[in-house]
Write a structure and sequence with these properties.
By secondary structure, the protein is of the alpha/beta class. The protein folds into two domains: 155 residues, Rossmann fold (3-Layer(aba) Sandwich), CATH 3.40.50; 107 residues, Nitrogenase molybdenum iron protein domain (Rossmann fold). The protein is 43% helix and 16% strand. The chain contains ten helices and ten strands. A four-stranded parallel sheet has the order 2-1-3-4, with helices on both faces. Strands 8-7-9-10 form a four-stranded parallel sheet, with helices on both faces. The longest helix has 26 residues. The protein binds zinc ion. The site of zinc ion has 7 residues, from loops.
Length: 292
Amino acid sequence: MGMNVLRVLLAMALAPLASAEVKVAVLHPLLGDLAKRVGGGHVQVVDLIGAQGDPHRFEPSAKELRAAKGVQLYLVSGKGLEPYLPKLKGMVGKDRVVEVGKTLPTLKAEVLCEHGEHAHVHEEDDPHWWHSIDCWRRAARIVEKELSRVDPVNAAHYGASAKQVRKELGDLRLWTEKELSKVPKDHRVLATAHAAFAYFCNEHGWKMLPVQGLNREQVASPKFVTEVADAIRKEKVLAIFPEKRSNPKMLKTVAKGVGVKVGEALLADGGDSIDAMFRHNVEAIVAALGKK
Ligand SMILES: [Zn+2]
């Protein structure tokens, strides 16, 4: 072995790992998947929430943030999902916090507020953009831009991998559409637990019928449950879907009352990966509603 080769090998061994160049923290269960795919070997992802975390309730503790030393970017979902954002920005610097959902298309949701006898409906941004594959394709470009901003040397790499991710997401969309086409048109109603699937339904021309509000903790009033039961009958819904990590008791009661079957639990707020969430949900929907 020549001296030069040895020197090169030694330099490689001593150089910091290429994988540790940019440290990115994620605060939504699916953003780690996107950051890893766009960042490739140049990004180290610090997953603060975990695949099982509930993004409606999660808030990073000061201790967790201190443990995530040297993070250059904090990826959050945005659209009002994280009430702790001003606090986070104050702690880590607002330039480091990226609301991936901020510039993505927004659907509005009607939220019922009940204060004792007085109830009113108001409009809010629906935060669940992660059920739109089109949103993910745009998000890949946003993450690419942010990584290129903090690590311009590897911008071409981020550009190429974001392009590849967008292609893969395009394939996922084609697969999703092909699968959903197995459900007859008049059964394309998604009756679920919390109102997480508006972006999904909007993207594929389905109707959404949630039994709860925008987050899992919101408990539906008896009046609301009666209205949902009526809607389920009217829309000739074949099945309603509980969700993983959520109590299906109320949903089962509604299903029993109306006489429809309960489908397999859907993944509403995350999963092991973007593809895994879509594939699981689409397969569960087609299994319950598709032509036999
Ligand atoms: Zn949700």
